[in-house]
């Protein structure tokens, strides 16, 4: 455990989040979903999308920019596809409902695709794609985000980190769970570094003048670097076209940041479930997947590498450790969480920072 973090039992952290959310009018069942998605991020080591975000959610609700009670409306549906309007509500609630609906359609049609418009930040994309795994389905999710990255060759932020996640069942001890931003890192990781008072690696971001920086505060005023240069830019643009334009949500410079309390946001995302049984017998699929995983894991390793991991495997191991020992929360984030609870008059069983 890092010296500037505190270990907190997962259920204690979830309960604190639920109480805070319910205090600002979130219905108990929805508060349960939001808290679970939020804490899951911290458990998997993705603190950039964990309880660090809770105060921003609460302040948007308090400012009247985000609906406390998320009410989903079906805009249109046809066969395997559905378009939902979250009507300014929580992305987590809309995301869970959308993936459940995609799984249901996949049972009927082999594939289900549910798009959501007019939502807010939904946390870690892997939470939703992993929902498909117990059903022997592939889960796919993509969301747009407020601009923080310049187009390749540009200097002004016009695209978000626009994450993509794909969860693929293997029928083995570990599934494949890809969850990545279109930028080198998610903007939340820079916020997390700023919260911990840490420097960031060169190559993550540029300052306002377009110069590489190790200062997270300067990076937050500048732009993020796309992963793979023009490839990351292309991926971010494609996600914005699908999650933003296609769904009828905001996109590019028109999408407000979670931290912008001057206007409402309309985040868009797409959820897809693909039933393995629509393409292969499960036993045959598992045998072939085992062969693929064995090839990857047993491939020659570079000097100093003891083990080759599958995408999402390290996060899964972190989650197991968090279950055993507690969820690591940055001291500054814990202080902010306690201050938020005190501001709302909510009793929480959180340790002192």
Describe this structure in words.
The protein has helices at 10-23, 28-43, 54-62, 91-109, 126-129, 187-196, 216-220, 230-246, 282-297, 313-325, 331-344, and strands spanning 5-8, 73-78, 81-85, 111-119, 137-143, 149-150, 157-159, 164-168, 176-180, 205-206, 223-224, 267-275, 327-330. 50% of the residues are buried. The chain is 39% helix and 18% strand. The protein is an alpha+beta fold. A hairpin with a 6-residue loop joins strand 6 and strand 7. The model has no long low-confidence stretch (mean pLDDT 95). It has a 7-stranded mixed beta sheet with strand order 2-3-4-12-5-8-9. The protein has a two-stranded antiparallel ribbon with strand order 1-13. Helix 1 (10-23) crosses helix 2 (28-43). The longest helix is centred in the first third of the chain and has 19 residues, at 91-109. It has 2 domains: 1-62 and 316-353, Orthogonal Bundle (Hypothetical Oxidoreductase Yiak, Chain: A, domain 1); 71-183 and 226-298, Ribosomal Protein S8, Chain: A, domain 1 (2-Layer Sandwich), CATH 3.30.1370.60. It contains 11 helices and 13 strands.
């Amino acid at each position: 455990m890092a010296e500037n973090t505190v270990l907190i039992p997962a259920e204690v952290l979830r309960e604190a989040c639920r109480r805070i959310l319910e205090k600002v009018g979130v219905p108990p069942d929805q508060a349960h979903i939001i808290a679970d998605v939020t804490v899951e991020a911290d458990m998997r080591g993705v603190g950039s999308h964990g309880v660090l975000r809770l105060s921003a959610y609460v302040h948007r609700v308090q400012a009247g920019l985000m609906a406390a009670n998320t009410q989903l409306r079906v805009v249109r549906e046809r066969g395997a596809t559905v378009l939902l309007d979250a009507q300014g509500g929580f992305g987590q609630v809309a995301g869970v409902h959308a993936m459940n609906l995609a799984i249901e359609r996949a049972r009927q049609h082999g594939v289900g695709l549910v798009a959501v418009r007019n939502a807010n930040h939904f946390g870690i994309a892997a939470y939703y794609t992993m929902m498909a795994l117990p059903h022997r389905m592939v889960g796919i999710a993509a969301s747009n985000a407020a601009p923080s990255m310049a187009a390749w060759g540009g200097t002004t932020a016009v695209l978000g980190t626009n994450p993509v996640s794909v969860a693929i069942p293997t029928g083995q001890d570990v599934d494949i769970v890809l969850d990545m931003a279109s930028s080198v890192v998610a903007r939340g990781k820079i916020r997390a570094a700023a919260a911990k008072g840490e420097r960031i690696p060169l190559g993550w971001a540029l300052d306002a003048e377009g110069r590489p920086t190790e200062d997270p505060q300067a990076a937050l005023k500048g732009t993020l670097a796309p992963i793979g240069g023009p490839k990351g830019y292309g991926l971010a643009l494609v996600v914005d076209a699908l999650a933003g334009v296609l769904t009828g949500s905001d996109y590019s410079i028109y999408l407000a940041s979670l931290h912008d309390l001057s206007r409402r946001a309309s985040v868009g995302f797409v959820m897809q479930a693909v039933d393995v049984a629509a393409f292969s017998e499960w036993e045959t699929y598992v045998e072939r997947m085992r062969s693929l995983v064995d090839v990857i894991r047993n491939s020659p390793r570079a000097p100093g590498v003891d083990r080759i991991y599958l995408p999402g495997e390290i996060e899964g191991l972190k989650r197991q450790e968090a279950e055993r020992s507690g969820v690591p929360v940055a001291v500054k984030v814990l202080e902010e969480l306690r201050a938020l609870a005190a501001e709302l008059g909510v009793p929480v069983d959180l340790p002192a920072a």
